[in-house]
Amino acid sequence: MFAFEKKFKKFREDEAGATTVEWVMLASLVTMVGLASTGVIERGFLALAGTVQGELRGDPVEQVAGLTYSDGFDHGSNGWSGASVTEINGVGNVLGPLGGTGGYPGITRDFDIDPDADQVQFEFDLLSLDSWDGESGIVFLNGYEVGRVTSDHRGSTTFTAAEGLANSGITIRGSVVDNNVDLGGVSTNAGFTDSRTTIQIAVDRPAEGDFDTISFGIGSTTDQGVNDESLALDNFTVRGLRDSSRSATAG
User: Fold this and answer.
1) Residue, of 95 and 49, whose pLDDT is higher
2) This prediction's pTM
3) Which stretch of DSSP H or E encloses residue 12?
4) pLDDT at 245
5) pLDDT at residue 24 above 50?
6) Does residue 60 have a cis peptide bond before it, meaning omega lies within 30 degrees of 0?
7) C-alpha to C-alpha distance for 178 and 96, rounded to whole angstroms
8) How many CB atoms lie within 10 A of CB 250?
9) Chain mean position to CA 22
């Protein structure tokens, strides 16, 4: 009996087994924490990657309340006025082509703004097709010019923002991504080249006044037939729109 008690006491006071158990429990706890953190870390890296990519591309990275509408015009022109969808060789489906409009809006669409949106963002491509020789494609918001693309099929394409936009809470920028290249166009004249300009617009909610609807439009100053020089809209996205189904339910 004495020998058994002596062995039991030695076993009870021996820390080797306890140390092993503690390390097993600690290792298990670290593993569980690591697994639980994986989703959080992954989402964080993905969000950071999207932000960095947006900054590098010049995309708006501010989060905007409301819905996002995107249209590559592969399913028609529902909701738009002034033009239909056309498939252009080398480009694909676009809204247009649009001929000269005398510098006024020729293609338009109204968008309902989410009541919780502090900002509305637009992004789209304007295509200057065929024999442009200094004419401009113009972007309008609520009937007012906010920017224009001026193109020459023999030379350069430039983007110019309208003056005084900051006072209206509007920021606009344009990047010429294709210049003096053959995108396809409408004309069969192989000597004509085209351009593509990506335009981004951010419209801040005003401190006072209505911010329920924004009318978007484009027009041009081209002075030849649509088969000779034209404007087209592609890859259109707007963020910050009202959810009409939610509004209907709430009402």
Assistant:
1) 95
2) 0.73
3) helix 2-13
4) 64
5) yes
6) no
7) 18
8) 7
9) 53
